[in-house]
């Protein structure tokens, strides 16, 4: 296990850092004897912690102003944590900004800091910098990337190489992306960003057309059409469309997907279509438009085509946070109870179905990640007159409750947080479940048995768990019996679970 390390901010002087370390009980044991390039800024130093076996090794790159503090000893992690609180250090957002800077010196600083911190979350950015036009950057990125590769990756690369040799026309990296939702989104961003196919895109499409996930295969058919990927025509003709309820397709869907594949193959092959103005050509018109550009959403079938070709954009971050909401390490929580929230940004959402199909802009709001659990509900009701501590984990079993009990629970949480929390409206619930692309279910466009464990595009979970969830007006949304995002029913005397919202300020 490598020693934990910190990278101090470039503007922190050695003198200021030395004072902080001395206050924490560190003693400067030695420093480099060579005259430093910058007066008062030694390039090597060793500190020891009084009364312990802990040591701190400090290095300074005067050209890039890179300051690295590396800890060793039996309590290295504890000492690392204590110094991290006292010394201004480089955090992930600042590191990302350095790696994407237009200044060569800043990019190099970001690369060396990434290496010192073993920041594997930055691997993708580092990999992209291998193609930087500045040789010093590309060479450094190559070395840093090699240092970030975790144990066992070489064996994984060997397996990928063997798979690539067996299927040279496919993209094995795409095939091994974790999770079908990532593979769907990659295809939809290709549709969004590319004007035409190329050999690399063709390889991705060939992999997608044989993917285990039916929706990935259908999305690949749409991508082949939009990008005019004629080279993948043999793979497209052989692509298996959903043929069973187990794959989430009812008989009508199966026929639609099969006809879609055949029409795309016909268009890519340059075979003639029905004459302009003929009844058959008129029926095909919406589908043909969707194959050449953004779908003109008029009904449920064209909304499905839109959902299959539209990537999920995360949308704008909140301009400000309500008093009751805090952000900790990228996660939103209620300030006093600690319950997790998800952000639904102010973007357009497709809502409804059939004659109620419409596009509505979200006002921007925070919604509970999961329904309120039994433990959190018991804590909130008991603590609403004077809360102490934080609620227990909200990943436990949701509390079954009546509409009145759900509203009372929101009131109790409101007293604790000092801000009005309420049940979502049915439109807010559908936005949280459906996301901006108009999908049928929180997880996509095909029914699946494990839907209860899947999150929505906005990260909201347990939307179709065993019990439905209360919305304003006594409506029940979601639940095992009505997994479609548009489903809701009146149930003033029924039992459901509670999920709160906090509007944006």
Automatic annotation (TrEMBL):
- Record organism: Corallococcus coralloides (strain ATCC 25202 / DSM 2259 / NBRC 100086 / M2)
Coiled-coil regions in this chain? none
Superkingdom of source: Bacteria
Please give the name of this protein: Sulfatase-modifying factor enzyme-like domain-containing protein
User: What InterPro entries does the record point to?
Assistant: CTDL_fold, SUMF_dom, SUMF_sf
Sulfatase-modifying factor enzyme-like domain location, by residue? Answer: 396-456
**A Pfam family that the UniProt record links to this protein:** FGE-sulfatase
């Amino acid at each position: 296990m490598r020693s934990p390390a910190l990278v101090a901010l470039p503007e922190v002087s050695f003198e200021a850092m030395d004072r902080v370390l001395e206050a924490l009980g560190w003693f400067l044991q030695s420093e480099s004897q060579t005259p430093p390039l910058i007066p008062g800024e030694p390039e090597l130093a060793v500190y020891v912690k009084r009364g312990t076996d802990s040591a701190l090794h400090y290095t300074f790159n005067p050209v890039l102003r890179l300051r690295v503090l590396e800890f060793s000893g039996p309590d290295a992690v504890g000492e690392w944590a204590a110094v991290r609180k006292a010394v201004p250090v480089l955090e992930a957002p600042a590191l990302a900004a350095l790696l994407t800077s237009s200044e060569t010196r800043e990019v190099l600083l970001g690369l060396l800091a990434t290496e010192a911190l073993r920041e594997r979350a930055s691997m993708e950015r580092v990999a992209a910098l291998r193609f930087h036009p500045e040789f010093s950057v590309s060479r450094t990125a190559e070395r840093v990337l090699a240092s970030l590769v975790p144990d066992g990756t070489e064996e994984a690369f060997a397996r990928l190489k063997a798979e690539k040799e067996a299927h040279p026309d496919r993209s094995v990296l795409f095939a091994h992306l974790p999770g079908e939702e990532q593979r769907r989104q990659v295809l939809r961003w290709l549709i969004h960003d590319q004007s035409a196919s190329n050999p690399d895109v063709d390889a991705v499409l060939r992999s997608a057309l044989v993917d285990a996930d039916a929706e990935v295969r259908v999305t690949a058919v749409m991508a082949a059409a939009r990008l005019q990927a004629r080279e993948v025509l043999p793979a497209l003709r052989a692509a298996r469309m959903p043929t069973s309820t187990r794959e989430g397709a009812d008989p009508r869907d199966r026929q639609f997907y099969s006809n879609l594949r055949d029409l795309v193959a016909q268009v890519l092959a340059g075979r003639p279509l029905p004459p302009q103005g003929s009844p058959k050509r008129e029926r095909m018109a919406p589908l043909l438009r969707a194959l050449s550009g953004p779908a003109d959403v008029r009904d449920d079938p064209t909304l499905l085509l839109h959902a299959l070709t539209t990537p999920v954009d995360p949308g704008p971050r909140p301009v400000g946070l309500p008093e009751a909401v805090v952000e900790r390490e990228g996660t939103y929580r209620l300030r006093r109870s600690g319950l997790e929230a998800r952000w639904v940004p102010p973007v357009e959402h497709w809502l409804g179905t059939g004659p109620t199909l419409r596009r509505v802009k979200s006002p921007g709001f925070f919604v509970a990640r999961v329904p309120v659990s039994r433990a959190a509900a018991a804590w909130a009701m008991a603590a609403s007159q004077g809360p102490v501590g934080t609620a227990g984990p909200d990943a436990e079993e949701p509390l079954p409750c009546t509409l009145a009990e759900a509203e009372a629970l929101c009131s109790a949480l409101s007293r604790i947080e000092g801000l009005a929390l309420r049940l979502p409206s049915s439109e807010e619930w559908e936005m949280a479940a459906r996301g901006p692309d108009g999908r049928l279910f929180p997880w996509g466009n095909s029914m699946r048995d494990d839907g209860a464990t899947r999150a929505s595009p906005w990260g909201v979970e347990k939307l179709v768990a065993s019990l439905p969830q209360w919305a304003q007006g006594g409506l029940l949304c979601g639940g095992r019996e009505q997994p479609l995002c548009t489903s809701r029913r009146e149930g003033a005397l029924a039992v459901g679970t509670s999920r709160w919202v906090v509007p944006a300020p």
